[in-house]
Amino acid sequence: MAKERILTGITTTGTPHLGNYVGAIRPSVVASKHKEVESFYFLADYHALIKCQDPAEIHRSTLEIAASWMALGLDTDNAIFYRQSDIPEIPELTWLLNCITAKGLMNRSHAYKAAVQENESANEDSDFGITMGLFSYPVLMAADILMFNAGKIPVGRDQIQHVEMARDIAQRFNHHYGEHFVLPEAVIDDNVPLLQGLDGRKMSKSYGNTIPLFLSEKQLKKSINKIKTNLLEPGEPKDPDSSTVFQVWQAFASGEQTAEMRREFASGIAWGEAKKRLFELINKELAPARQHYEELLAAPQEIESVLLTGAARARQISQPFINKLRRAVGINALA
Ligand code: TRP
Questions:
Q1: Where exactly are the structural domains of the chain?
Q2: pLDDT tens for residues 199-215?
Q3: 155 lines ligand 1 (CB under 6 A)
Q4: Each residue of 234-268: pLDDT tens digit?
Q5: What's the CATH code, domain 214-294?
Q6: Which residues are CB-neighbours of 205 under 8 A, at least 6 positions away?
């Protein structure tokens, strides 16, 4: 039997932060080493254009994200690691899928509905600022997934609906043109923490509350010191479960270290001391990769060559498959 295929993408906007690390990068790096599955990790740079029209930012973010994954040990010999825009079959498939996707399905997309809602609350025209890219984002994502017939799609909760839409689109295509696509399923890992940011809300670039993944030791210390705490003095017992410092600790610590920190909170550890230990814990995990990251940024040709090798491997699958799909819809040579 063919190996199971796992695929996930990361949109190339912004600088990777600790939330991306514990939520997506760290588990993907582990999974990339599994030999019993075939895994695909890619930089979703076409998706990035939907959210960001600053060319320098897109370019820089693509570099930083690729360097982060590689520095942290993504197994690019085993897993296929590529850039979406290096696979021309993806936009081609996007069009084939566009032509069988119901507009009504796209109308139900959470991301699109949220944008409309925001316009309505601001008394704007409901289409204000909404591009076709945003509207049909789930079709591009469906093409990413269906191009490689991936069955398992590890994503965050906010992406479940998109994977379900990819499944709907695949079903519709199969129904009309024959069984070409595996029906994908979202995989949500409940053990992966959703990290809180400096202000206690979910760590997210859009809230401006992130701790970037690769900072110098000095900057990392400074950033951790900005995590919001209450005014309890040293010696006063503190509640771990409402504390961002503790929540971030837990995402990096062993079970034993977490139990130990819980006791420290009960016996009134000073915030300064808790943050100092948090810095040491995070720094210990990231320091070895930090140097590799800096080296990769300084010599991006190594990253470029890994991505091109990944794209060549991916295209060994996508090229014959798109030809088969073209024939299926009636686009092929006349003689
Ligand atoms: N839309 C995803 C996100 O913003 C990224 C992504 C693009 C993706 N294509 C994908 C994830 C295909 C999984 C599969 O997080």
A1: 4-194+300-329, 214-294
A2: 999 999 889 999 999 99
A3: yes
A4: 999 999 999 999 999 999 999 999 999 999 999 99
A5: 1.10.240.10
A6: 13, 14, 17
41: alpha, beta or left, given left = phi > 0 and alpha = psi -120 to 50? beta
Query: Scanning the structure block, which residue is given the tokens 């900005």?
Result: 226
What is the pTM assigned to this prediction?
A: 0.94
Quote the CA–CA distance of 22 and 64 in Å, as a whole number.
17
4-194+300-329 is a CATH 3.30.160.140 domain: no
Tokens 């420290």 correspond to what residue? Answer: 264
Domain 4-194+300-329 shares a fold with domain 214-294: no
Token pair recorded at residue 21: 């690390």
Write 71-76 long-range contacts (CB < 8 A, 24+): 71/214, 71/289, 71/290, 71/292, 71/293, 71/296, 72/21, 72/25, 72/26, 72/29, 72/289, 73/29, 73/289, 74/28, 74/29, 74/32, 74/41, 75/29, 75/32, 75/33, 76/32, 76/306, 76/309, 76/310
What tokens were used for 253?
A: 């610590």
Q: Is 217 helix (H, G, I), strand (E, B) or coil?
A: helix
CA 182 – CA 166 distance, rounded (Å): 10
10 CA closest ligand 1 atom index: 5
Q: For the segment 265-324, what is each residue's pLDDT rounded down to a tens digit?
A: 999 999 999 999 999 999 999 999 999 999 999 999 999 999 999 999 999 999 999 999
Ligand 1 centre distance from Cα of residue 163 (Å): 9
Q: Is the CB of 8 under 6 A from ligand 1?
A: yes
